[in-house]
Amino acid sequence: MKKILILGGGIGGVEAAISAVKEGFEVELISERDYLFVYPVSIWIPTGEVRSEDVKISLEEIAEKRGFSFRQGKVKEINTDAVLLEDGKEIRDFDYLIIAIGQQKLKHKGIEHTLSVCGSPEEILQIKERLDSLIQNGKGKIAFGFGGNPKAPEAVRGGPVFEVMFNVHNYLKKLGIRENFELTFFAPMEKPGARLGEKALKMMDMMFKNMNIKKITGKKIKEFREDGVLLEDETFISSDLTLFTPAGDGHPVIKNSDLPKTEAGFLKIEPTCQVSGIENIYGVGDVCSIEGPQWRAKQGHLAEVMARATAHNIAVKEGLKSGNFETYTDHINIMCLMDTGNGGALAYRSDKKAVLLPLPVIGHWMKKAWGIYYRLNKLGKIPKII
Ligand SMILES: Cc1cc2nc3c(=O)[nH]c(=O)nc-3n(C[C@H](O)[C@H](O)[C@H](O)COP(=O)(O)OP(=O)(O)OC[C@H]3O[C@@H](n4cnc5c(N)ncnc54)[C@H](O)[C@@H]3O)c2cc1C
Question: Which tens digits make up the pLDDT trace of 56-69?
Answer without folding.
Answer: 999 999 999 999 99
